[in-house]
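Q: Convert this sequence to C-alpha cells.
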Amino acid sequence: MQEIRHSFSLDANRAPQLKAIVIRLTSMNKIFLIIVILVLTPSVFGQKSTTPSLGWDLTYISVLSANRVAPDEWVRKWLGPNFQSPARQLISKWRDGPIESSVLLEHPAFHAGEHVTIWLVRTKHHAYYIELVEANPRHKLKESLSLHLYDKLFGMMSSWQQAQPLMPEDTPENGIPGYMGFLSFYNRGDSRQMLLTGEDFVICKTKKCDEAKLGRVYQALTILPRFKVQSDRRSTYNNALQLSAR
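A:
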C-alpha cells in the first residue's frame, strides 16, 4: 500500500534573474554564453512542467503502479488507456491567484460510473469548489467557499492515510472490489496522492447493504453547505447513501 509524495518549489523571480544574466554576458565570449543558456534552460523547463499539475500525476499511473494494481482490475479499466484527468485543463487555465493548497477528488458516480471530478482550491484570500461530470460536458460548477470551511475540510482530509484495498469477499452486492477512486493533496509545495476504496464513500454493514453509513469522503463533504445527505436503509449499495446539491 503506497502513496505518492512529491516536493518542489517555485521561484517567481527566476525568469527575471535569468534575463539579467544573459544581458550581462552579451559582451562576453559567445561560446561561454551558449553554455550558460544550456545549463540554465532545463531548470526553467522543469518549473513549467511542475506548475500545471501541482506535483500530481494526473494519469494516476504512478500511484496505481506503486500499489501494484493489475491491468485487469476495475479501476484500471474505468480509467481506460491514455487517461488524462480533466483537472489538468482546470489547473493549467487557473487565473485566480497563486494556489496555496488544494484537494482533488476523482471517482465514479455510483448510478452510472461516469467520471466525477471535484477540485477544491485555496489561495491567500479565497477558496473555491469546482465540479465536473463526464456525462454532462455543460455541467461545470464553480462556487466560492469560506476560508474557514475550506481549512476545516482540508485539515480533516489531508490527515488521512490510504486504506487497504477492499477484498472481493468484503465487497457488497453490486459493489467494486479493490480501489475505485483517487485523492490528491497539495500544500505549499508538497503533494501527495492516494487511492480510495468503496468504503471511503459508503460503509455497508451487510452484503445487501440494507444498513449503511457514510464513509469518510462523503462524511467530510457534508461540511460544505451545498451538500445534504439523503439516506434510505432499505436501498442497495448503489443508492443507499447519496450526496446531492441543494
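Residues 61-198 form one domain.
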